[in-house]
From TrEMBL:
One of its GO terms (cellular component) is peroxisome. Its cofactor is FAD. Residues 28-130 form the Acyl-coenzyme A oxidase N-terminal domain. The active site is at 432 (proton acceptor). GO terms for molecular function: acyl-CoA oxidase activity; FAD binding; fatty acid binding. Residues 287-446 form the Acyl-CoA oxidase C-alpha1 domain. This is Acyl-coenzyme A oxidase. Keywords: FAD, Fatty acid metabolism, Flavoprotein, Lipid metabolism, Oxidoreductase, Peroxisome. Its main location: other. GO terms for biological process: fatty acid beta-oxidation using acyl-CoA oxidase; lipid homeostasis. FAD binds at residues 146, 185. It comes from Favolaschia claudopus.
């Protein structure tokens, strides 16, 4: 290696060279990933405004205490709405501004849970009374479902809402410690109002199960807790310090009276006399959940995109190990064992971003349908979104950690930026429906559809259940994967659909002796078959989206998504006989062809990796990562960050007199020696 070699200059050279190697029109792909030129333009303008505003400064946040992070979160929420007024941002602009925030903000509970549930489930009277205040943030809301003693099992919630016909009021009450509402975002210190799940008790002690009620929590004059309520923060949310900027809270109610109109009674209600009014559809209350969960798909797409961008940029400029043809240590991205880990992240981000956008359109349609009482799409969308929520949270968490590990020790530094994203995203596997519980729901619906196929009135197979056509038609025979399969998206999609249908069939045939992991595998197989079919549609639409060179590259990205999905499904594919050893395979290992195809695709995409990750369009402010800086000068960025560490303000730490000195002196005394 040349002694005149300067690694910091080399960082920039490596990044410039990698950028120059990209053959695609990055600007075109960027517009596509951002939902079109107008949305990309809006995002750019909004990010410029935010990144130049001191409230959104991220330079010191790695050193903030919980209290400081919370105060910053509230300041960010306030400033965002101030800026909305100042710049006359539309609702769409605000959605962009909120989506580029990398903090779990207390205001999110208002926007993502409280407001949509109120809009979807409140009566016209209740909605019109609070709609303007809710929209303008004149009141701030939260959603109180989970209790200290129960989360997933809604039917066992203990908080009661007892109807009192004499005064036409409900009385909210927390009868036990375990009925304390727990975990609700913004409940601790922020929210003035809440939507609460409580057991509806009708005259004659009739327990009608959980229903939604609207309740004021704090005074609009002083922000003090109103009488009868006990409110507070549940404490630092987790040991990794995720969610520190949000006040997840607890609440107890002591015989709190609310007017009858405060029941969210668009669908289920209570007559003045106290009789129950049945909802038109058993799953009507799921519409709010569908909305929150659908947002998680796009959100996971952007998170994985960040992880991909940071890790690919760092691996491009980090040199380590063997000496390459240029006489320098090799860029770590050139090692297959590195790039096969991080290039697939690009593929998942590309797919989830498009999938999320399509899902948002479907959920908007559902909301319109429900507002006129049309519930035809409700159950289908509920199961689809539940499965997707599980898939994107599971893979998103894995991908963030994969990216972090691919960067070695520096990946663990707070300045790498991925640790915070990981800590904030971890509970996505738990909130908005614990993943294992959602898997059970996805599988139950699939089994019901499957069983109906052998009845005189079979369910129609569409959307999430279309893969079942394969076993409905007895003449169809499962394919056998060959070397060709890995080059053809349609063959990969077919394998994933067969895997889902055969697994559902197996589960239906083994209900008396189930294997313990089958629910998780079936749910994943169903969702991956659904996503694979959508990827097929995305591939088919590529010609009209890009110029030929980008079509070829993005097609490879989508194919890589399909192949890595197959790779993670190998246990099922082998167990179900969808991949079998053939005499042609030299090693008799039938999975080798797939693995080699994944490796080949990753290698082919390598020269495009910087261009593809630039296409997400992240600014340095958005990434907030010393290892993911656009110009590649990672060592200088890391050095500058370390200089801000508060411990470095003084040469001799205050711990010296208190602890280090006595320790040293004791040791020196025991050793009886002087140096
Ligand atoms: C950061 C964060 C934010 C949150 N925000 C809110 C909010 O705003 N509002 C709100 O109401 N809640 C909120 N929650 C709570 C969240 O919705 C619940 O934690 C979640 O629903 C799971 O419930 P639980 O914690 O009681 O888990 P449990 O239901 O106790 O589950 C514990 C374990 O048991 C398993 N299990 C439970 N039941 C079964 C079963 N029948 N079969 C098999 N396995 C089972 C689960 O799979 C899980 O592994 C939040 C949580 C977090 C972490």
């Amino acid at each position: 290696m040349s002694s005149s070699h300067d690694p910091t200059k080399q960082n920039a050279i490596d990044m410039t060279n990698a950028r120059a190697a990209t053959s695609i029109e990055v600007a075109d792909v960027r517009k596509f990933l951002n939902g079109g030129p107008l949305l990309w333009d809006r995002r750019k303008k909004i990010v410029t405004i935010l990144s130049n505003d001191p409230v959104f400064d991220k330079s010191l946040r790695a050193f903030h205490s919980r209290q400081e992070q919370f105060l910053r979160g509230e300041a960010i929420s306030n400033r965002l709405y101030e800026l909305q007024e100042l710049h006359k941002w539309s609702q769409e602009d605000m959605t962009i501004a909120l989506s580029v925030m990398d903090e779990p903000l207390p205001i999110a509970s208002h926007n993502i849970t409280f407001k949509p549930v109120l809009e979807l489930q409140a009566s016209t009277e209740l909605r019109s009374k609070y709609a303007a205040m809710t929209a303008s943030k004149g009141i701030l809301g939260c959603y109180l479902q989970t209790e200290l003693g129960h989360g997933s099992n809604l039917s066992c919630l203990e908080t009661t809402a007892t109807y009192l016909p004499q005064t036409q009021e409900f009385e909210l009450h927390s009868p036990t410690l375990t009925s304390t509402k727990w975990w609700s975002g913004a409940l601790g210190k922020t929210a003035t109002h809440g939507i609460i799940q409580a057991k509806l008790i009708l005259p004659g002690e009739k327990d009608m199960g959980p229903h939604l009620f609207f309740v004021q929590l704090r005074s609009l004059e002083t922000h003090e807790t109103l009488p009868g309520r006990t409110l507070g923060d549940v404490g630092q949310p987790d040991t990794l310090c995720g969610w520190a900027s949000t006040d997840n809270g607890f609440a107890r109610f002591d015989h709190v009276r609310i007017p009858k109109e405060n029941m969210l009674s668009k669908f289920a209600g209570v007559s003045d006399a106290g009789e129950y009014v049945t909802p038109p559809h058993a799953k009507m209350s799921f519409s709010g959940l569908i909305y929150f969960r659908s947002l998680m798909v796009t959100n996971a797409g952007w998170l994985i995109a960040k992880a991909a961008t940071v890790s690919i940029r760092y691996a491009t400029v980090r040199r380590q190990g063997e000496i390459g043809p240029d006489g320098l240590e090799r860029q770590i991205i050139t090692y297959p064992s590195v790039h096969v880990r991080i290039i697939p992240l690009l593929a998942r981000a590309f797919v989830y971003l498009e999938l999320g956008r399509a899902l948002t359109r479907r959920v908007d349609e559902l909301t319109r349908d429900l507002s006129v009482g049309d519930t035809t799409q409700l159950a289908e969308l509920h199961h689809m979104v539940s499965g997707l929520k599980v898939l994107v949270s599971t893979t998103g968490i894995q991908d963030l950690e994969t990216a972090r590990r691919s960067m070695g020790g520096h990946g663990y530094s707070a300045f790498a930026g991925l640790g915070k994203l990981y800590a904030d995203f971890l509970p996505a596997a738990t909130y908005e429906g614990e993943n294992s519980i959602l898997e059970q729901q996805v599988v139950r619906a699939a089994l019901k559809t499957f069983r109906s196929l052998s009845t005189p009135r079979p369910a129609s197979l569409s959307g999430t259940s279309s893969y079942l056509c394969l076993i409905r038609d007895k003449a169809l025979v499962p394919p056998k994967a060959t070397a060709d399969t890995w080059a053809k998206p349609e063959a990969a999609i077919s394998l994933l659909e067969w895997r889902a249908s055969l697994l559902v069939q197996e589960m239906a045939n083994t209900t008396t002796t189930p294997d313990p992991s089958i629910t998780q595998r079936v749910s994943r197989a169903i969702t991956e078959a659904f996503v694979a079919a959508r990827v097929g549609e995305l591939i088919a639409a590529l010609d009209s989206a890009f110029k030929p060179r980008a079509v070829a590259v993005v097609r490879k990205v989508y194919l890589l998504y399909l192949l890595t999905t197959l790779e993670s499904a190998l246990v099922d594919l082998l167990s179900l006989g969808l991949i079998i050893a053939t005499v042609e395979t030299a090693t008799h290992n039938p999975t080798r062809g797939l693995r080699l195809a994944v490796a080949r695709l990753c290698k082919e995409l390598l020269p495009e990796a910087i261009g593809l990750s630039d296409a997400f369009g992240f600014s340095d402010w958005e990434l907030d990562s010393a290892l993911g800086v656009y110009d590649g000068r990672v060592y200088e960025a890391l050095w500058a960050k370390a200089q801000q560490e508060p411990l470095n303000r003084t040469d001799v730490t205050e711990a010296y007199e208190v602890s280090i000195k006595p320790l040293l002196l004791r040791g020196q005394k025991i050793a009886g020696a002087k140096l």
